[in-house]
Amino acid sequence: MTATAGAERPTATEPLRVAIIGNPNTGKTTLFNALTGLRQRVGNFAGVTVERVEGEFRMPDGRRVAVLDLPGSYSLSAGSPDERIALEVLLDRDRQHWRPHVVLVVVDACHLERNLFLASQVCELGVPVVIALNQFDMAQEQGIEIDVPALISAIGVPIIPTVASRGEGLQPLKRALFTAAELPPPARRFVLPPEIEASLAPLVQHLEHGGLPTGTARMEALRLLGVRRGEQHLADIPDLARQLDSARDAIRAVGHTPEREESEARYGWIGELLKTAVRRRSASAGASTETASDRLDGIALHRVGGPVIFLVIMALVFQSVFSWAAPLQDGIDVVIHAIGSRVAGFLPDGDLRSLVADGVFAGVGSVLVFLPQIAILFAFIGLLEQSGYMARAAFLMDRVMRRVGLHGKSFIPMLSGYACAVPGIMATRTIDDQQERLATIMVVPLMSCSARLPVYTLLIAAFVPATPLLPGLDLQGATMLAMYLLGTVTALLVAALFRKTLLRGPVRPMILELPPYRWPAVQSLAISVWQRCLLFLRRAGTIILALSIVLWALATYPRADVDPALGEEARQEQQLAHSTLGRFGRAIEPAVAPLGYDWKIGVSIVASFAAREVFVSTMGTIYGVGGVDDAALQDRLRSETTADGRVAYTPLIAVGLMVFYVFALMCMSTIAVTIREAGGGRLGWKWAGIQFAYMLVLAYGAAWLTVVGGRALGFS
Amino acid sequence: MGSEATVVAIECGELEACRLRALGLYEGAQVSVVGKRHCLLVDVNGTRLALGADLAEGITVRPQGRSVS
């Protein structure tokens, strides 16, 4: 079997497919956002475990371009899961993916040497390549003079200087993508020493027989010399390991070191190339000159000052999530309330009106009010990432994380977990070591996500008095903080436990790039936040809407023959008890009774499995008040009594319930993403099962301890 | 600290060596130490890297012929 050359040409009707790849911190995503704007979609490749962000733009003449944003990669050497994904998409070995017509390599003009390493690998894949020389302005400021025509002729691909954050160079770049699609794909521009080439020949041939095009086979042969890990995309090539070993032996026999060959060859070529194409103006010559970034790091990474600044920034983030969001939330609340009562007013009294008011508006509305908090949290995380501070935070946290057997990098997924466990778990793809990565995945859902906020907010507002403690902090705020701390500390302890038991292994040494500090690109940030908000709104419009309707139906039917002589509240009570939901709730009541919960809380907990926010909307639906008027729900909870006339919710039970939610993995989406990211298939299910089980046990145990311990101490 | 040196040998796990080379820290690269905390802060051709102390011990540099640690 011999393979044909890899390049594909776009047909007249289909869009031009462009894959964007680049080192982390090159402004790759900013460029992607600048190219595609709001025309983006987050989805999955059919049948494979790759999340993709795809966008589209149109040329003035109407031609369409589909753009795929590949994960940031330092090389194609597939060290981290992120890089493996990029390589698999580019090679398209299983013919399932989206084979690009053109690969756009985003290169940081300030760090050409390192960035061209990846570019030189990509240039050997047999696909036309365009290089965007990004942050070109910054390179000029730093006195780096780049002779672009010289680079073009040396590398053999179109190279366009861009400043993605200001949208400069986009038009020539777009045109270059089309031109490149018509050009022959680039090929390797350097020669290996003849004895190395000879030693590699059998391996190259073997890869070609396995179905790789010639250029790709040569790239892979050289690349594989440095790595020895399982290569999923090459798994179908038989006998590869033996061929590789004999190639390594042959190279050692001629006095070379196999692991060094690729970097020596590529950097050797890049070095020669840069000698002629790049000039540093003497004023800023020498890499050791202290930059503004270094001076900032002197403060941000200071032994004492560093952690203090870190804590202040974290405090600021949380403070703003709660206080800045409040007026916006009130606004949304007012609008939903107005629309809800207007719509309900048009409908005749009866089941339909009840469905719209108590089901749809109470259910979905109670969740929508959290949109501002989610937007602010994601904006902050994006800001920290783009500015370059996130890497410093990982650096500072490395000491803490190392104690529990994790890498500093694990801090970033955990921080994202405060917004939502789903992107948090996906962010673990930057962690190279599989055991460390799994341990991080296991604990990310313990970080209190924004979906728990509604639960905490409701219960705290209803049951915790606003007794002032310190200036700027009252008992309500302290309780909220305690819930976040409880989750975070437990996450660290559980990670340590996993690393000592199921996921034992040495902590990988830290290798972390500290990118220069940068002003964030506001527009790009806004686009990313908007995408996250859309995802949340889609959830509100689908899962949460559907569940609200189902719950409403379960709480309404079958209809009870209520005694019309009774008061409104008693009639509702009778109806609810008679309904399907009521019967189900009483069936599970024995399981939640030790925690002090009645069947209504039990039902809400079970329903919140679809999404935690649903707890609030379920309570809203059950009590027929809900988020359209949060204060009403709070009053209702406070006055609620059990069948035997006791108060249903005491502050102690409310705290126990919050503790339950700190730990419980009540989220379908998280389970789905864990299955996928832990390896898919049986392995994925196994880890998702372990995760769900340990969190449930922890939740039940801790809630029980809270209630029992609290009673023993005389609280009620 | 601050003075330039050339990387002579990298001895560490294969995964780390591979990552270091991709980051521009390869045999023959110019490096200088710019700071020392619980990790080593090095400059490699304008890129700032934080390297764990254990990892840095495995990297040998010239001219002094001493190990960066």
Topology (elements, then pairings):
The complex is a heterodimer of chains A (716) and B (69).
Chain A: E1 16-22, H1 28-36, E2 40-44, E3 51-58, E4 64-69, H2 81-91, E5 102-108, H3 112-122, E6 129-134, H4 136-141, E7 144-146, H5 148-155, E8 159-161, H6 170-182, H7 194-209, H8 214-224, H9 240-253, H10 258-277, E9 278-280, H11 292-300, H12 305-323, H13 325-346, H14 351-368, H15 371-387, H16 389-403, H17 411-417, H18 421-426, H19 434-443, H20 452-463, E10 468-470, E11 473-474, H21 475-500, E12 511-513, H22 522-556, H23 568-578, H24 580-592, H25 599-607, H26 614-623, H27 630-639, H28 651-663, H29 668-677, H30 681-712
Parallel strand pairs in A: 1-4, 1-5, 5-6, 6-8
Antiparallel strand pairs in A: 2-3, 3-4, 7-9, 10-11
Helix pairs in contact in A: 1-22, 3-10, 5-10, 7-8, 7-9, 12-15, 13-14, 13-15, 14-22, 14-26, 15-22, 19-21, 20-21, 20-27, 20-28, 21-28, 22-26, 24-25, 25-26, 28-30, 29-30
Chain B: E1 4-10, H1 14-22, E2 30-36, E3 39-44, E4 47-52, H2 53-57, E5 59-62
Antiparallel strand pairs in B: 1-2, 1-5, 2-3, 3-4
Describe the structure.
The complex is a heterodimer of chains A (716) and B (69). With 716 residues, chain A is an alpha/beta fold. Chain A folds into 2 domains: 167 residues, Rossmann fold, CATH 3.40.50.300; 427 residues, no CATH class. In chain A, helix 7 packs across helix 8 and helix 14 runs antiparallel to helix 26. The longest helix of chain A has 35 residues. The N terminus of chain A is likely disordered. Chain B is α+β, with helices and mostly antiparallel strands and 69 residues long. Chain B has a single domain, classed as Roll (SH3 type barrels), CATH 2.30.30.90. Chain B has 2 helices and 5 strands; from the N terminus they run βαβββαβ. A 5-stranded antiparallel β-sheet of chain B has the order 4-3-2-1-5. The longest helix of chain B has 9 residues. The termini of chain B are close together. The relative contact order of chain B is 0.27. Chains A and B meet through helix 3, helix 10, helix 11, helix 16 and strand 12 of A and helix 1, strand 2, strand 3 and strand 4 of B. Strand 12 of chain A pairs antiparallel with strand 4 of chain B.
